[in-house]
Design brief:
Radius of gyration: 24 Å
Number of domains: 1
Organism: Octadecabacter temperatus
Protein name: UPF0114 protein OSB_06180
Shape: extended
Number of helices: 6
Subcellular location: Cell membrane
Structural class: mainly alpha
Oligomer: single chain
Order of helices and strands: HHHHHH
Number of strands: 0
Distance between the termini: 50 Å
Membrane topology: Multi-pass membrane protein
Largest sheet: none
Strand content: under 5%
Pfam family, one: UPF0114
């Protein structure tokens, strides 16, 4: 075999390998389907909570009704987080949605890159953590809750929440530095 034929064969093997690597992104599709199932589970849990508390609305104390609303908001934020990860992750890593210009398509679809996804993710986690922490603080003084959440456990909840907040600030700072560096490189390239 000549060197030229071997070179063509190597390119063919390399091209096949790269196509196989590229096609492997579809291994994520079942995971995204699993997130759809998770969203359905959250919807059922939301419905269960709503059906449980709706008949009691006239007998709930204001504190208890706020806790119920916070629980429903918490579940909704978790659902929003799932959708953001589901849509953005699928579009960034697997395939673009072929929805044409569907009027129901959210404006952010197709525009959230990995950096934006990361920031939306940490913002949602911080919001969910804050709601969870607020619920625990509102339960202070209720004997059953005090037995479950000692001052030590509450301290750890605050520390964990603050670590989420700090992580968000650090990620935002890293994105800012990265964007500033890219802007400087573009300006330097123009000169």
């Amino acid at each position: 075999m000549s060197d030229e034929n071997q070179q063509d064969e190597k390119l063919t093997v390399e091209e096949h390998f790269e196509r196989g690597l590229f096609a492997s992104r579809w291994l994520l599709a079942p995971m995204y389907f699993g997130l759809v199932v998770s969203l359905a589970m959250l919807t059922l849990i939301f419905g269960r909570e709503l059906l449980y508390y709706a008949p009691k609305i006239l007998t709930l104390s204001s504190d208890k009704s706020i806790l119920v609303v916070l629980t429903l908001i918490d579940l909704t934020l978790a659902g929003n987080l799932l959708l953001i990860v589901l849509f953005s992750g699928y579009e960034n890593f697997v395939s673009k949605f072929d929805l044409d210009e569907n009027e129901d398509k959210p404006d952010w679809m197709g525009t959230v890159d990995y950096s934006g996804l990361k920031m939306k993710l940490i913002a949602s986690i911080v919001a969910i953590s804050a709601i969870h922490l607020l619920k625990k603080f509102m339960e202070i003084g209720i004997p059953e809750a005090d037995a479950l959440y000692t001052p030590e456990k509450l301290k750890w909840l605050v520390i964990i929440h603050m670590s989420f907040v700090l992580s968000g600030i650090i990620l935002a700072g890293m994105d800012y530095i990265s964007a500033a560096a890219k802007m400087k490189m573009k300006e330097a390239a123009k000169k």
